[in-house]
Amino acid sequence: MRIVLVLEYNGSRYCGWQSQPAGGSVQDILEIALSKIACHTIRVVTAGRTDAGVHALYQVVHFDTQAQRPLNAWVRGVNRFLPHDIAVSWASVVSDQFHARYGAYERRYLYLLLNRPVRPGLCHARVGWLHHSLDLTRMQVAAKMLLGEHDFTAFRAAACQAKSPVRRLTRLEIYRQNNFFIFEICANAFLQHMVRNIVGSLVYVGKGKYAPEWMQTLLESRNRTYAAPTFSAAGLYLAGVSYDSIWQLPDFIEYPFEICLPAILR
Fold first, then answer.
1. Residues with catalytic function
2. Number of structural domains in the chain
3. What pLDDT score does 263 carry?
4. By C-alpha distance, which of 201, 186, 194, 107 is closest to 158?
5. Alpha-carbon distance 127 to 150, whole Å?
6. Would you state the pLDDT for residue 265?
7. Do both 97 and 184 map to the same domain?
8. Residue 7 belongs to what domain range?
9. Most Cβ neighbours (<10 Å): which of 49, 91, 197, 217?
10. Which residues make up the binding site for substrate (predicted)?
């Protein structure tokens, strides 16, 4: 049978999602725990590979098994074998037609940026940080230029293995709450480092290094060397993955910007 899971994790201690020969990834830890419950080796397929230091509020995986277990075993049972910073929140049996990666039609990320002169202490490794003051309006104007379907070569990592740099950005909103800026980004899929590169370039606009129109010029250049450096992974959260309603996955957790900080930093 095929099982689908929703999980969350704090990625600060891990080398990213994808399994590594030496271990130490979120995938490695999860597969060990699942294998203990199934009593055979489990390999999972994920909706998206998060980088080292990136967190997830709503990650989706599926795996196949012949083990007959109650659904609670794939949640509370697996959590018994997981470290404190990784947790399965939901499980269900699905047909073999479900695919965590290819069945997803949209991914949603949040980036939390602390903007104050002093570095974070309490939320170290959970938020990005910048000491230069930022102009919200300038960043919002620049963000609108990235909406729609574009070639995002200027925002992809040099090592990105995606066959095409074309992605469809459906949402890019920026909010402010006290000393925090919250970036919400939705797309059909993302290139490697795409979100962090977009945030880094928007920060350049926000601190006055470039005018908002620079974002359009940058997009059209299709040249990664013209963009800002890749921003810190610490503030990035995979916050949702969307599928056809026939699969009946739970709605991803909504974190309105007014309350998202207490929810994420709990």
1. 51
2. 2
3. 52
4. 194
5. 28
6. 53
7. no
8. 2-103
9. 197
10. 109
